[in-house]
Specification:
The protein is mostly loops. It has one helix and five strands. The radius of gyration is 40 Å and the shape is rod-shaped.
């Protein structure tokens, strides 16, 4: 009878230990749900993936050492900046509220498309692009489309970086040449000016003009007549 109770006690203890180990293992390897707030005075470290279905509020600095992917809309209440040379990459459009824009933290150069971009589009067909103050420096050719036009309210200078004093001026270290020609067949160049009274006059060379000795020298005489070039 004593041996029976000893064996019964052994099996009871064995079952209790087995159930305890299984319970601890299930708690350790299963997810944990906390229905109330969690507050820690130290560092909260998470080695695995974390899924947050609600809002996340950080009163201090949020430091991320790895790549960060944001698939939804990102709203910034203050400036977005980087303290190193590591670029900030965007997979979609960057939209800023009216009255705000892109700028450098301190006085310096703001680079757009200087690495891999082969085309930069500024504005739309109905937008007005304004460059305030300073200078616009073009390192290559500046062109417009066939439907585009270049209108200047101020003075226009060619061949110099000095602000021109005349409405249109050209400067060169050699012979300064102004060309007026047409790429069309049987077309020519024309110069149009306005008289003091407002009458338009045009100057051109007729296609049938030949060399002449008028005024004592040989050459082509340009024709001045009333009217516009076009």
């Amino acid at each position: 009878m004593k041996g029976f109770f000893s064996k019964r006690k052994f099996f009871s203890s064995f079952i209790s230990i087995t159930l305890s180990v299984a319970f601890v293992a299930s708690v350790a390897f299963a997810s944990t749900t906390i229905s109330t707030n969690v507050q820690t005075d130290g560092t909260l470290s998470v080695t695995g993936a974390s899924t947050l279905t609600g809002n996340v509020t950080a009163a201090g600095t949020l430091a991320v050492t790895g790549a960060t992917t944001l698939t939804g809309a990102v709203t910034l209440g203050a400036n977005l900046g980087t303290s190193s040379s590591t670029p900030i990459q965007f997979g979609g459009n960057v939209t800023v509220p009216a009255g705000f824009g892109l700028d450098t933290a301190i006085a310096g150069i703001l680079n757009l498309g200087t690495t891999t971009a082969n085309q930069i589009t500024i504005g739309s067909s109905i937008a007005t692009t304004t460059i305030n103050g300073g200078r616009l420096v073009v390192g290559g050719n500046a062109t417009t489309t066939a439907a585009g036009a270049l209108s200047i309210q101020g003075k226009f200078g060619v061949g110099t970086s000095t602000a021109p004093s005349l409405e249109i001026s050209a400067d060169s270290t050699a012979t300064t040449t102004i060309a007026a020609f047409s790429s069309g067949s049987l077309k020519g160049g024309c110069i149009q000016i306005s008289a003091v009274g407002g009458t338009m006059y045009r100057m051109y060379v007729n296609a049938i003009d030949v060399a002449t000795t008028t005024s004592g020298h040989a050459g082509i005489i340009a024709l001045w007549e009333a009217g516009s070039c076009k």
